[in-house]
Amino acid sequence: MCGRYAIYTPFRGLWQQLELDFASPPRYNIAPTQNIPIIRRAARGGVEVAEAHWGLIPFWAKDRKIGYSTINARAETVAEKPAFRAAFKHRRCIIPASGLYEWQDLGGKQKQPWFITDAEGDGLGFAGLWERWTDPATAEAIDSCTIIVGPANDLVRPIHDRLACILPPEHYRDWLDPEAPGPFLQSLLTPCPSERLRMWPVSARVGNPRHDGPDLVEPVLGA
Predict the structure, then answer these.
(1) E.C. number, please (predicted)?
(2) Domain around 171
(3) Residues whose CB is less than 8 angstroms from the CB of residue 112 and which lie 6 or more positions away in sequence, other chains included
(4) 165 is a catalytic site residue
(5) Which of 71, 124, 155, 162 lies at a CB distance of 3.0 to 4.6 Å from 194, suitable for a disulfide?
(6) 2 part of the active site
């Protein structure tokens, strides 16, 4: 799964592929249920940056609590699951990230967090979905999103068996294309090549979402 990530790097790929000058205040410990930036098709064409609640609320949900269990969508079933299939067809998005955290199970209750980032420092684009839900009690419209996850690549597999689906930059436009066929979209949800990434162990302080700061992505010795 992908349950924490960070934004702090320039996103050269977004500019090169989408001509989008994306910038965000640095955030080093983004957690589910927070509002996060997403990139999606704009209503009048082109692309736009929007803000969405992390935890997708399907348009048919009775209340927003379902979002606690939909922070991630499995690549293997995203096209069929009732919570995600409509968004997969019509409301795909890119979620910019500088890197993400995964926890290695060391046995018992011990877990070591690792930070996974791109090798070139250009930023990553997670495959995501977004949805708009209207609260039946207040008529408030809420945009929400999820990050698609799939099998880990060879680099990450020794610490965790799942990894966020990281889009190839050259396919950013394809992922957002409303006419893209389903089988082609599924082909973009394969494990990111290991050579695109690097990773290192980091402080357990990242486990507390109240902690934030560049020290969270610094390597720890002896882990």
Answers:
(1) 3.4.-.-
(2) 5-203
(3) 103, 104, 106, 159, 201, 204, 223
(4) no
(5) 155
(6) yes
